[in-house]
Structure formats: C-alpha cells, structure tokens
Amino acid sequence: MAEQPDKPAIPSSEYPERWTKVQAMMEAQGLDLLLAYADDRATFGAAHARWLANFPVHFEPVIILMPREGTPVMLVGPESDQYALLAGQIPDVRILREFTHPDEDYPYSTMQSVTEIMTDIGVDIPAVRRVGVGGQGLIAADVLAALQTALPNVEWQDVENGLCDIRAQKSTAEIEVIRYAYQIAEAGFQAGVDAIEVGVTEREVAAEI
Questions:
Q1: CB–CB of 34/131 below 8 Å?
Q2: How many CB atoms lie within 10 A of CB 154?
Q3: Do 36 and 48 touch, CB atoms closer than 8 A?
Q4: Is 116 helix (H, G, I), strand (E, B) or coil?
Q5: Rounded Cα gap, residues 16 and 1, in angstroms
Q6: How far apart are CA 188 and CA 86, in angstroms?
Q7: How far is CA 193 from CA 9, 140, 179, 190, 209, in A?
Q8: DSSP sequence for 37-106
Q9: In the chain, what are the domain boundaries?
C-alpha cells in the first residue's frame, strides 16, 4: 500500500492570530466583550467554536468569551470540560452554570455563573458597556436571558456578520485544507460517476462513493 501523505491542518499558532483579529474588530466597534456561541447543529452550529478553538462541539453548547485583550475562555457544560481541554485550542475552560440541567447533580464539577467567570478573568463588570454576540440566532432563549440578566446595563450588538467577514479571509493553511477537502469530494463524485450504468442500483453507487 502506498504511503499516505500528511494531511494539511491548521497549525496551533494560527488560533491566537484569529483571536487578535477578532479583538481588532472589537476595538473598532467599541466592544468590551464578545460572546461567540456554538452548538452541535449539523450545518453551522459548531462554526465559531471550530474557528476560534478547533473544538468539534458535541452534545452540550459552548460559548467563547473573548475579552478585548488577552486570551479567550471557553464556557461549556459539565460533561464537556475535559473533552474541551483535550480537543480544543483554548486552555482556560470553565463550566457555565447556565449550561447545566436543573434536575442533575454534578458533584465532581465546579460550576460558575457568567458573572463569576468574568470576575475571575479580571473583567471590570461595571465598566462593560457594549457586548458583541456571535451566533445569537442559535442561542436558547433561557440562556440568552441569563446572559442579559448578568449584564443588565449593556448594549448588545449582533456581530455575526463581522465574525463571518473575518473568517472569510482565508489563511494559507486554510486554503490548503479546503483544497484537500475538495480533492476528497471530487474523488467521491468520480467514483459515483464511474459506478453508474444500466441496472446498477442507487445503493450500489452509494457504496462505491
């Protein structure tokens, strides 16, 4: 069997560069904090967590809490913290109380409210005036209400388009990954085309792909 070439990947060094780009957008828009929501919906749900932390969200939702300076914090549910530490690129992972189930006990987890987490990382909460939100359309109503209750006197700004604009500007590593993905897709299509002939079932074509 021929040796498989190394697959292209996003280097770990690229994630802090992405954080810096987001923080530059925050500076330009006068944002004190940014919350990027992600979940495991099939199409776009995990997008912000993937791009900011290389975290493949599964089961529980995630919020990336981005201060204007410094490193972000990943807020997860009580069953995802070790998974996030193992798979993601953000070393500071906290369990957000708003992501817990009210009828479940979590004796081995330390849960914090968003206010407690912000205080821990040095955010001057009374000084926060504008908060950007990415993925707001996906956030459950009760979670969004809890976040807004924790920061009652701030202006909430939808930054979904701004985040997507930054993500649309691809790095060299991203372009290589995209090329590789299209090579895989092209090989799959070609296998399907080659398998099609009179009398062959759709199932048989799918098996070749």
A1: yes
A2: 16
A3: yes
A4: helix
A5: 38
A6: 31
A7: 29, 43, 21, 5, 9
A8: EE---TTTTTHHHHHHH-----SS-EEEEEESSS--EEEE-TTTHHHHHHH-S-S-EEEEGGGS-TT---
A9: 14-168, 172-208
For residues 50 and 48, what is the distance between their CA atoms, to the nearest angstrom?
5
CATH code, 14-168? 3.40.350.10
Question: What global pTM score does this model have?
Answer: 0.88
Give per-residue pLDDT as tens, 93-125: 999 998 988 778 888 889 999 999 999 999 999
32-52 confidence digits (pLDDT tens): 999 999 999 988 899 999 999
The letter for the amino acid at 11 is P
DSSP string, 137-153: GGS-HHHHHHHHHHSTT
101 touches 82 (CB < 8 A): no
Given a contact cutoff of 8 angstroms between Cβ atoms, the answer to whether 119 and 94 are in contact is no
